[in-house]
Please model this.
Amino acid sequence: MSENYDFKTHWDIAYLKNSIEDLGWYEDDPVVSLDLINKCNLSRNSMIFHAGAGATKLIQKLKDDEYSNICVNDISKSAIDKLKSSINNIDGLSFVVDDLTNPKDLLNLEMVDLWHDRAVLHFFVQQSQQDAYFNLLKRKVKDGGYVIFSEFAIDGAKKCCGLDILNYSDEMFQERLGDDFELLESFKHLYKHPSNGNTRKYIYSLFKRKQ
Ligand SMILES: C[S@@+](CC[C@H](N)C(=O)[O-])C[C@H]1O[C@@H](n2cnc3c(N)ncnc32)[C@H](O)[C@@H]1O
Model:
């Protein structure tokens, strides 16, 4: 994929052409992420940032759990529009349509207590994209804040949504985050699509930024 590939259009088309439930990463109940988030023991007004949230059901679940300060990002406005129409109200939510690998509005994001990324970082196969992503993350995660990554595991699929991906291990996350971040927990998870039964191997890792 060339550096000039139009990722925004790619993702807009994916969300416009498919119902949310048909997307290859759709979860009825994002319980694995929720369990990890609950382990962080955040106060209900903590700032939670969802990188590349798409139309995930996790946002509604967090609202149901009374988290009240959630920033939802995606490169695709179509994804954000679908998310908005799938939740009961948008109180406590802010939305930023912006590119994590070339951030503009995201530079104004307030400092975050939790950065959550499921199936987004692994699309950034170019070094320059990864550098931009991790520069933003390190600029925005508070001391004592948390980072959750959920990406295709080392022995997982090599593509997602028609795009090449980079498979991840703990060591790779740690190398990119640096010594400021401590790994608290990590495990493999076999995702199963709720309707077609397709499976994908993910790794989930929870890091904490040192105080
Ligand atoms: C595989 S989907 C995962 C969506 C969501 N995290 C979930 O678990 O349901 C990848 C998401 O990342 C978004 N995305 C891809 N590249 C991005 C970028 N450079 N900046 C922000 N979002 C991006 C896509 O639009 C899409 O919603």
